[in-house]
Design a protein that fits this description.
This protein is an alpha/beta fold and about 230 residues long. It has helices at about 20-30, 35-45, 55-65, 70-85, 90-100, 115-125, 145-155, 170-180, 220-225, and strands at about 5-10, 105-110, 130-135, 165-170, 185-190, 215. Strand 2 (about 105-110), helix 6 and strand 3 form a beta-alpha-beta unit.
């Protein structure tokens, strides 16, 4: 069955390399404060690929290094600086342009605070190559719930009822969320996390056999799959 040419992408570690940007931010932070390489490694481990809430991250950083600024101030500075360090790889930007030329609507569905995620979308150049986006921090819903996908589709002048695709690196937010929103899905394993089924989370309302339609290493690979549809 041919489904509507709607491609919704996750932002962090799908369209932009959040981990690389975070490593750059940590290097700046530790460099400026005379902290060691071990301290930098500790921060990267603590962040756990962005899975630790930012407030908890900065509370732990504040305590461990005894930095004078309050947690809120550290967080504010991070919110300003991180989007400046985020890059969308050129092949991804090119791929998104190709998709749109081929008649696809392209959107972003991301969990995070509005100013922070919006800053990344603008600074990375994604603003010029997508039709719309939905950020959990400025809507009353987040992934994996279906509403954020519906909002993003609407901003792309599409309706998830007519199908489409969700592409992302999070098994729950992107794959379970995408399936429950009625979309086909592509999982990005980033070459470091092969698909191993869904995590065993209490209350996760997903059948154990649920899996993505395709598994690829990176977003360029996902775009190739879409162009082949
Ligand atoms: Mg992600």
């Amino acid at each position: 069955m041919i489904v509507q040419k709607l491609a919704l992408f996750d932002l962090d570690d799908t369209l932009v390399d959040r981990l690389a940007a975070f490593r750059r931010w940590v290097a700046e932070f530790t460099g400026r404060r005379g902290l060691s390489k071990q301290d930098a490694a500790w921060m990267i481990e603590l962040d756990a690929d962005g899975s630790l809430p930012t407030e908890e991250f900065f509370a732990a950083v504040h305590e461990r290094f005894g930095v004078p600024e309050p947690v809120d101030m550290l967080w504010d500075a991070y919110r300003v600086r991180m989007p400046e360090l985020v890059v969308c790889p050129r092949p991804v930007l090119r791929g998104l342009r190709r998709l749109r030329k081929a008649g696809w609507r392209v959107g972003i569905v991301t969990n995070g605070t509005a100013a922070h995620q919006r800053g990344k979308i603008y600074r990375s150049g994604l603003v010029d190559v997508v039709d719309g986006w939905a950020i959990s921090g400025e809507e009353r819903s987040g992934k994996p719930g279906p509403q954020l996908f519906q909002i993003a589709a609407r901003r792309c002048e599409a309706n998830v009822r007519d199908g489409g695709w969700m592409i992302g690196d999070d098994p729950v937010d992107d794959i379970v969320g995408g399936v429950f929103a009625g979309l086909r899905t592509i999982w990005i394993d980033r070459g470091i996390r092969p698909w191993q089924g869904l995590p065993d989370l209490p209350g996760l309302p997903a059948p154990p056999g649920l899996r993505p339609d395709h598994v690829v290493t990176d977003t360029v690979g996902a775009i190739k799959v879409l162009l082949g549809q």
